[in-house]
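Notes from the 1:1 (GR / supervisor)

We went over the backlog. Supervisor wanted to see one worked example end to end before approving the batch request, so GR pasted a single chain during the call. The sequence is below; no edits were made to it. Supervisor asked that the structure be written out right there so they could see what the output format looks like.
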Amino acid sequence: VQLQASGGGLVQAGGSLRLSCAVSGGSFSSYIMGWFRQAPGKEREFVGSISRSGGSTLYRDSVKGRFTISRDNDKNTMYLQMNSLKPEDTAVYYCAAEDSTFVPTPLARRYDFWGQGTQVTVSS
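Structure output shown during the call:
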C-alpha cells in the first residue's frame, strides 16, 4: 500500500490550503484514514481522522472549525481542507491508513501505512 501526500506550500496566515492523499495498492474504502503533523523539534501529533464511508470524522481541538477532512472512495483519495491557517499550523503533514479499527482514531500506533509528508508553512 502506498500513500502519496501532496498540496502543501507556503501561505499567509488566514489563508487556505487543500492537501490530498492518494492511496494505491490496497482497498482504500476499507481503511480508516488519518492526518498527522510534525513541527520542527516537536513530536508528531494527530490532526484528524475519517471513517471508511466518510460519515464520521474526528479532529484535534485546535483545528476544529478550521480544518475539514473528506474522502472520495471512487478516487482512492483523502483530502484535508485547511482554512484560517495560523503560523502554529506550520509542520510536515502526513497521511496514514489503517484497517484494524471501526471508527476514526487519533492513535498513531493504530495506523499501518504512512505517506511521505508534505510541508505546510504559514507565515505571519
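Supervisor's comment: The first strand starts at residue 2 and ends at 6.
Batch request approved.
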